[in-house]
From TrEMBL, chain A:
The lineage of its organism: Bacteria, Pseudomonadati, Pseudomonadota, Alphaproteobacteria, Hyphomicrobiales. This is ABC transporter ATP-binding protein. Keywords: ATP-binding, Nucleotide-binding, Transport. PROSITE patterns: ABC_TRANSPORTER_1, ABC_TRANSPORTER_2. Belongs to the ABC transporter superfamily. The keyword Nucleotide-binding applies.
Automatic annotation (TrEMBL), chain B:
Pfam families: BPD_transp_2. GO terms for molecular function: branched-chain amino acid transmembrane transporter activity. This is Branched-chain amino acid ABC transporter permease. It is a multi-pass membrane protein. The chain crosses the membrane at residues 24-41, 47-70, 77-95, 101-121, 172-192, 229-252, 264-288, 300-327.
């Protein structure tokens, strides 16, 4: 199948530090990819570059064949490239139900409406209810986000991304900060995703990675050092080295 | 029956505790206060009408500052544009029908809102504040320059509104203007209540809380804020138009930095982000100003300053915000 999402030789340096170095990857509809790598490897930076939150120094990003360079984050979302944030970005004074209402209405192009409320839109309420149920957020649905547990805020981040019905979904450590007892929620939500959606998940929890991904990409010091089947990743010498921290020495020697 | 049918799911979800009924109580409270004001100060209706005009200005500030989080010290540009639009329509074009004058005010305010928004939204944080001050000063200077249209520093006179609906003349007691003002306030307030619950209103509150999240949902922060600026301009413009009708003169002070700053102070006093806060802040500030400056013209600013310091230090959410918070805490116990 042809690629829905392509990244070609994406590079970015902060000052002298090359955080993303000629990263290339392609994903087809339905792909389930895990992006892993040590802390500071440049995973979040990669997502920020792809979604338009950061400007790359060079490289090309394409979604469904369309080049996204130069577009702002909003335009990329409208075309179906949706992300979640590693550190939650939510509206503290709004409830989960209100968050999801905004996302659903925005997807339908109805957030410009000056009258009426989502409370009188049965199909919107129904869709919100399904999303809340999927992530087990029913009990927290009508409490302000500032007052709900961080783990539930993380689940809401995922629900928001799903509400936008993306073509390509980038999840930045969806399980970080979620209590162990709640991770099955995330897994079942991921398992229930549309079959043609391409998902790239950044995650440190290797159990989750192995259950979710059909393909694993390892990023270390801004470079892809492994791209292949989950079964092979732990056998790879360079990956082991990277996780032991010796990649840093390699770089200073180079 | 199918319990999963959208309409049935909707019926199962408990709606928020306060909704439609609270809206009607609010409107009834405004109406009741209007009657009380009329009975208590029958000889001072002109002051009360001016308060209503300024309430519109402060509501308008609340729309961009309280709802969207855009700080402004130049909102009198929108109010003054409305006042001049209504005044010029009457004095130069013979449009003296009060409803048409109000419409001219709303249109003038909307245009000024669009211009202000285009400029102010270029900046961020402190930059927005500085740009908003620049805008009101530019408007002020422009109005001063085209004196043949605006009367310059002498003010625009020859504004003689014809009777309301062809029946109710604008009398010396200011009764007609007052009743018109109350009617406009109730209408504007009713519409803004709807607006604040609408998808657009929610999106605006989202922008204040996290614009990056709003963009990550695929919504345009800039377009939304610009739209709110135009709506805000219409509200301020109605207030300006009302002021032009009621006083039959428009002065450069309606386009001043001072008025802009006072409007922001009134909003903070009442409580930002709530329509009630805007009304309460304005009424308290202006009636207080009137009484204290009559009793002690030399110290009213001192007393007003002390009041403000007190509110900001001890009730940072403003009069309404703090009261609502106390009320909410009680309910939860
Ligand atoms: N805006 C920035 N300015 C300068 N340096 C930055 C910036 N953002 C990230 N970095 C640096 O780039 C490197 C990669 O950071 P990034 O957040 O992408 O890592 P990560 O792989 O997501 O790590 P983690 O697993 O901890 O989330 C780090 O060394 C970080 O300090
Ligand atoms: Mg990261």
């Amino acid at each position: 199948m042809s690629a829905v999402f392509e990244v070609e030789r994406l590079s970015k340096a902060f000052g002298g530090l090359a955080v993303t170095q000629a990263v290339s990857l392609a994903m087809a509809p339905g792909d389930r990819v895990a992006l892993i790598g040590p802390n500071g490897a440049g995973k979040t930076t990669f997502v920020n570059l792809v979604t338009g939150h950061l400007k790359p120094d060079s490289g090309v990003v394409r979604l469904a064949g369309e080049q996204l360079n130069g577009m702002n984050p909003m335009q990329r979302v409208q075309r179906g490239l949706v992300r979640s944030f590693q550190v939650t970005r939510l509206f503290p004074e709004m409830t989960p139900r209100e968050h999801l209402a905004l996302a659903v209405l925005q997807r339908q192009g109805r957030t410009g409406r000056l009258f009426g409320t989502f409370w009188s839109m049965p199909e919107v309420l129904e869709e919100i209810e399904v999303l809340l149920r999927t992530l087990g957020l029913e009990a927290a649905a009508d409490r302000k986000v500032a007052e709900i547990a961080y783990g539930q805020q993380r689940l809401l981040e995922i629900a928001l991304a799903l509400a936008l019905r993306p073509k390509v979904l980038l999840l930045d450590e969806p399980a970080a900060g979620v209590p162990q007892s709640e991770t099955p929620r995330i897994e079942s939500a991921l398992a229930g995703l549309p079959a043609d959606l391409a998902v790239l998940m950044i995650e440190h929890d290797m159990d989750l990675v192995f259950r979710f991904a059909k393909r694993v990409i390892v990023l270390a010091a801004g470079t892809i050092i492994f791209d292949g089947a989950p079964g092979d990743v732990t056998k790879d010498a360079r990956v082991r080295e990277a996780y032991l921290g010796s990649y840093a020495d390699d770089r200073s020697a180079a | 029956m199918d319990a999963n049918h959208p309409a049935n799911v909707a019926a199962q979800i408990a709606r928020p505790r306060f909704s439609a009924s609270a809206d009607w109580i609010g409107l009834a409270a405004i109406f009741a206060s209007a009657v009380v004001g009329y009975l208590l100060f029958p000889n001072n209706l002109a002051l009360l009408t001016r308060v209503i005009g300024i309430v519109m200005l402060v509501l308008s500030v609340d729309l961009v500052t309280g709802f969207c989080g855009v700080a402004t010290l130049g909102h009198a540009a929108l109010f003054g544009a409305g006042a001049y639009a209504a005044g010029i329509a009457a004095a130069h074009f013979g449009i003296t029908d009060p409803i048409a004058m109000i419409a001219a005010g709303a249109a003038g305010g909307a245009v000024a809102g669009l211009i202000s928004g285009l400029v102010v939204l270029r900046g961020h944080g402190l930059g927005q504040l500085v740009l908003s001050i620049a805008i009101v000063n530019l408007f002020h200077e422009a109005a001063n320059k085209v004196a043949s249209w605006t009367g310059g520093s002498d003010g625009l006179t020859d504004i003689a509104p014809s009777p309301l609906f062809g029946v109710f003349a604008f009398d010396l007691w200011g009764r007609t203007a007052y009743v018109l003002g109350i009617a406009l306030l109730v209408i504007v307030f009713f519409l803004l209540q709807r607006l604040s619950r609408s998808p657009f209103g929610m999106l605006c509150r989202g922008i204040r809380q996290d614009p990056i999240r709003v963009a990550a949902m695929g919504a345009s922060v800039r377009k939304t804020l610009l739209k709110m600026y135009i709506i805000s301009g219409m509200v301020a413009g109605v207030g300006g138009g009302l002021n032009a009708i009621s006083t039959q003169v428009v002065g450069l002070d309606s386009l001043s930095f001072t008025l802009s700053a006072q409007a922001l102070v009134m909003l903070v006093l009442g409580g930002t982000g709530s329509l009630y806060g805007a009304i309460i802040g304005t009424v308290v500030f202006m009636l207080f100003e009137d009484f204290v400056s009559a009793a002690n013209p030399f110290h009213w600013l001192t007393i007003m300053g002390a009041l403000l310091v007190g509110v900001v230090l001890f009730a940072p959410r403003g009069i309404f915000g703090t009261a609502a918070q106390l009320f909410d805490r009680r309910r939860r116990r």
